Structure formats: structure tokens, C-alpha cells
Amino acid sequence: MKGLSLASVALFAVVACTPQPSTPPTTGAAPALTPASYASGSAANTTPAFDGTYTGVGTQNISQGNTLDVAGGNAPITCQNYGVPPPLTIHNGLAQFQLLNYTFQGYVTPQGHLKMVTGFGHTVDGQIDNQGVYRAQGVGACAYTATWRKNA
Questions:
Q1: Is this structure's pTM higher than 0.85?
Q2: Into how many domains does the chain fold?
């Protein structure tokens, strides 16, 4: 999983414990993104000011412990450490990145707030600052923070 990088930010062990959808992730960067029905935010309340490609900087596991008990189950969840998050693309205010066969999508507000969801209950929520750095947190069975930086 290390090679998948970031399988982290949100992705928090919830992703690891959730059945994977059968649709494979899209590969390659498309010039335009197609909004999913579940995309967080509003196309009417966005801006292209943050458009571009953001490169993952790092992910941090902020879970309280390395292992969590599964409610009603008999196997613990191990909160793994991950490296660099996958690239994030924003086009016409719509943001998207893919992780573990999930596509996270959401619209950036004019103030730089960006919340992305998968449609399967996974959420990444954060802020893009005036330096082009997106800092986000995802919480599920485990908790992570992740950072992306806009390419020049």
C-alpha cells in the first residue's frame, strides 16, 4: 500500500474497511472534470481562481492509537501510515483526486474552502491558502491530515 501513497487522508481506515467499488479509477489527467452527482458544494458558488494541479506533499496519521477495535467485530483496524497523497486537480472550481478506487470530488468556494466526498461516506475537508497550499483532514475509523501544493 505504500506505493499507493496517501491512501491516507481520509481514507483513514474507513476506506480499508469498506467494500471497494468495482469501477476502476480513471487514469491520466483530463483537461476537464465531469462532476459526479455526489460532488460536495455547489457549481453556482465556486471560482476558477484555484484551478490547477496540486502535488501531494505529505500525510500524517493523527489517530489516537495504532490499532482500533472494530465495533461489533473481532478484528482490530490498524491505522496505517502513508506517504505522499495522490495529485489533486481543480478545473472550473471542481476538485478531484483518486485514492484506492474512490474518486473524491467537491467544489472550491471563492474563499478557498474545499470539501470533497466519495459518495461512499468518505470525506476530506480543508482550506486552500493564498500560497496555493491545500491542508485537509479526513476522519473515519482512523484520522489523517494531508497537504497538497499547487504546481507553479
A1: no
A2: 1
